[in-house]
Amino acid sequence: MSSAPSPMPTSSHHYEDNSITEGLVLPLAGHCFHCGDPVPQPPFYADILGKSREMCCMGCQLASQSIVEAGLEQYYLDRSEINRTASLPTQLTRLEAYDHDEIKSQFVYAQDGLSVAELSVNNLRCAACTWLIESRLYEIDGISKCQVNLTNQRMRVIWDESKLPISRILAVINEIGYEAKPYRQDTHEAMLAKHNNKMLLRLGIAALGAMQAMMYAVALYFGEYSGMLILQRDFLRWVSLFVSIPVFFYAGIPFFTSAWSAVRARQVNMDVPVSIALIVTFFASLYATITGHGQTYYDSVSMFIFFLLAGRYIEHNARLKAATMANDLVVVEPVLVQKIAENKGDAALILQQLQQNAFDKVDTSAINQAVHETGVKIPISAVASAPIKYTPNFMQSMDANVHQITNRIAQDWQQTSCQRDLSKPDLLKPAYGAEQKQMVTAQSLQVGDIIMVEAGSEIISDGILLSPTATVSQSLLTGEGDLIIKSQGDYIVGGAQNDSQPFEMLVTALPEDSQIGLIDRLMNRAMSEKPKLAQQADKLARWFVARILVLSALVFIGWYIVDPSQAIWATVAVLVATCPCALSLATPIALTVSTNRLASYGFLTTRGHTLQTLAEITHVAFDKTGTLTYGKPNLLNIELIKPVSQNQNADSSALPLQKDRFLGIAAALEVGSRHPIAHALLTAAYQLHLPPTQALQHYPAGGVEAMIDGVLYRIGHMDFALDKSAIGENVDNNLTIDLLSHRASSAVVLSCQTSSSSGWQALACFYFSDKVRDNARSMLDTLKDLGIESVMLTGDPSPQALVMAESLGMQSAYNGLSPTDKVNHIQQLQAQGSVVLMVGDGINDAPVLAAADVSTSIAGAADLAQVSSDSIILNGQIEAITAAKRIADKTERIIKQNFRWALAYNSIVLLPAAFGYVPPWLAAIGMSLSSLFVVLNALRLKRA
After folding, report:
1. Quick check: 309 and 203 in contact, CB under 8 A?
2. C-alpha closest to that of 118 among 127, 102, 100, 106
3. Are 713 and 705 in contact (CB under 8 A)?
């Protein structure tokens, strides 16, 4: 700075005369109000204690704003000095700890360029509480989306971290009376259990107080008729006050704090009318006790609080029980894992190859064309930003190149382990570094770490098996009860369980980015989102509360004119009896129970609207491969090409030998490949001798080429195998593949080239069939009985696809479709007023999954397809679709029943309460029973 420094004032600081800021320590003139450093010109400003204060930098400006917005301005009045190291308010310091990258990485993740956090929220009592938090956060610049789930006491917030830190969000939530912390399953359950114990303690105190107050009230009621002395009456009133004080000031405190938080935010919730009723009744009774004039209703206050707490306690436990199943579906990460070494270089090489394979296998031009032509947006940035964000799926991306890398890494590790065991550190490969066996937290694992997975423990992340063999269970992801034997170099999926001896693996994905982490994230999203029906219920409940307050004022005025002694009690009865608690519970309880019931069938909803839309579907569109079929082709037949078979006419017994020879060559070409066709060929040739190959080369979307005994062979689709893109007279243009007559779903051609100058000669054609899922026919018949039309939309161009659709009894089928064609078919159905469920499994299905009204994908599908879909079928049992439809229909019926009950109860009880026929204690019982009925009715979905 070229400007001269400010002159030094005569005193270090002075004090303002304003009584509000008496004792406030001020900085030197021209110095920062927050830290005391000199301010630039022009300075930064922040409003503190009613005045604009000068700040030296944006950091001090943001820090002071955070203190003010957290309601902690008292810090500036309490501090005795101004300097950079002066301690900040304890609460703000605690919240700012969540801004540190190491802590933040444990619960914040990136999505579409924004930050997403899952939080546990304490003290949520009704739908208005969720609305209050959401509306307050939406007022802050930088908040993109906020969704609070009352049932699970959780919330999901999406925001721009460049505009505000996570500590600011937590501070705002705390400011309006709720406690928010990063979500972890174990701590969340502990928080709910602690809250449950507090509720139970308050309920016990309310029960004791209500019983005692009722005993004294009975004596007072009988004393009115038997001529009780005033001294005795006053004594009983004072004793009733004494037993009611802990009930009112301790057991009833949750209602008052909730109402005060709403009023401070200039909103209303369910506890506002309840608190008004309690406060009016208690202090009116206190006035009557002190003055000796009027009636006392301490028994009504105590019973009212007891019945309210009892209803909420039962409701809270029902919600807790309903939410437990969803939490149990996701593996809780172990606290500690044993880290042995690290190999970040090879891990990066694997990820790079997997990522390349993932997108080589996708017809990205077709997807982009479908998005461009149809306007359908895929709801994540997986395609656009895939090189940075996308974590490849091992199941979809493993090929021979990756397998060669993983085998080499695994073999190197075994050699390194042997050398380490022989105590020859000078022979250790430098890639693994020094031996560093240590126990580390799961959250601190990095890609490239080598860990030991103990027998019987959960596998916390995706990785590559380095040990010779392992036996794992993937029942959580695939529903397969059988144990799966993994060999050295195979992939291991996070969420599986080690069912054999300990093994070592190379971590290739962080725990939160593994397959089980993705499912957990999708479920969290579903549980935090609200369908339109729930949003309408919340809006109606808020409207109802506001009208109740107005109506109560009118009832008080009316009764004050007619009979002032009844004005307070009639008003209290109206406030209590018509509180729309049941209305606010009608939807969320039913949705939570049904969501968890669906999860028991292996059908996980990942979006909030899924259940509501499932109840409205008229059409179900299916992909074929991997959806209606298992996606695991089997070899049906080997057809020798005519010139080859003619050469064997002299000895027909040689034909089987010729087929075995060609099968062995085809299988040899496919060694190391993870393509389903390769698996089918290797399975069929497991008893044959496979000749060695040289110069093996893979051609994406074509096939495989290699040299065997000096002859160059190819296997793949016909155009590739015969090199029809080349111009030459030797190309066999007469070869035809007859899938229909062979009842096959696909075929590949084996060809050879004896010299570089000659063309490619077809040797054999291999026909494959993909088995239809066992329960596909019964599922389609059930849908037909429900009046739902089934449609098949497949990219398979073979006529066998149409034959299969006809055999399954599907009403219509279309084959050879591009992603654009599939989206167009969906949009045509929607234009006719149909509501369409799309079922798919591949990345190419992402546009059509996003275009459908509701969608589902099979677990084990590509990540993009899973995120684009509204639900996931975990166990591979496609009949879960009919269970989902049945449960969705029953959920809709129960929600409507709950709505009708809540509205009917509030309408029926209104007039008797307003005319003074319903005492406050009876109104409390009625409201509690109404809420309890809604909860118990929703719990019937557990048996759906």
Report:
1. yes
2. 106
3. yes
Q: CB neighbours (10 Å) of residue 93?
A: 11
Determine the Cα–Cα distance for residues 524 and 526; give it in Å rounded to an integer.
5
Cβ atoms of 838 and 791 within 8 Å: the answer is no
Residue 678 to residues 355, 641, 658, 687, 745: CA-CA distances in angstroms?
Answer: 21, 21, 20, 15, 15
Write down the pLDDT at residue 621.
92
The angle that helices 880-914 and 776-785 make with each other, rounded to 10 degrees, is: 40
Q: How far apart are CA 235 and CA 242, in angstroms?
A: 11
Residue range 648-669, pLDDT digits in tens: 444 555 567 788 889 999 999 9
Determine phi and psi for 487, rounding to 5 degrees. -105, 165
Could you tell me the two tokens for 831?
């234009």
Nearest to 793 by CA among 583, 568, 627: 627
CA 17 to chain centre: 55
- 364-374 and 819-831 are packed helices; what angle lies between their axes, rounded to 10 degrees? 30
Q: What is the DSSP annotation of 737-784?
A: --HHHHT-SEEEEEEEESSTTS--EEEEEEEEEEEEPTTHHHHHHHHH
- Indicate the pLDDT class of residue 570, thresholds 50, 70 and 90: confident
Interval 60-101: pLDDT, tens: 776 777 677 656 666 777 676 776 555 555 555 567 777 877
d(CA 774, CA 779): 10
Q: Which residue type occupies 274?
A: V
Nearest to 115 by CA among 142, 92, 139, 89: 142
- Could you tell me which residues come within 8 angstroms of residue 675 by beta carbon, excluding any fewer than 6 positions away? 399
Amino acid identity for residue 304 in this structure: F
- Are 815 and 366 a contacting pair, CB within 8 Å? no
Tokens 């319903």 belong to residue: 918
pLDDT digit string, tens, across residues 877-909: 888 899 999 999 999 899 888 888 888 888 888
Count Cα atoms within 13 angstroms, Cβ side, for 771.
Answer: 8
Rounded to whole angstroms, the Cα distance separating 113 from 437 reads 37
Encode pLDDT of 336-374 as tens digits. Answer: 677 777 776 766 776 666 655 554 444 444 445 444 444
- The three-state secondary structure class of 836 is strand
Angle value at C-alpha 895, between 619 and 588, nearest 5 degrees: 105
CA-nearest of 451, 446, 440 to 413 is: 451
Residue bearing tokens 């975990």:
874
Which tokens belong to 744? 């096959």
Q: DSSP assignment of 396-428, as one string?
A: HH--HHHHHHHHHHHHHHHHHHHHHHTT-GGGS
DSSP, res 856: E
Residue 869 near residue 857, CB atoms below 8 Å? yes
pLDDT in tens, 759-815: 788 889 999 888 888 888 999 999 999 999 999 988 777 777 788 888 888 888 988
For every residue of 11-65, which 3-state class applies, written as one string? CCCCCCCCCCCCCCCCCCCCECCCCCCECCCCCEEEEECCEEEEECCHHHHHHHH
Helix axes 271-291, 564-577, angle to 10 degrees: 150
Which pLDDT band, with edges at 50, 70 and 90, does 190 fall under? low
Could you check whether the bond before residue 254 is cis, i.e. omega within 30 degrees of 0? no
Q: Which two tokens stand for residue 307?
A: 């019945």
The SS3 of residue 797 is coil
Residue matched to tokens 């969420």: 495
Distances (CA, A) of 683 to 96, 635, 716: 58, 9, 17
DSSP H or E segment with residue 186: helix 185-226
Amino acid at 135: S
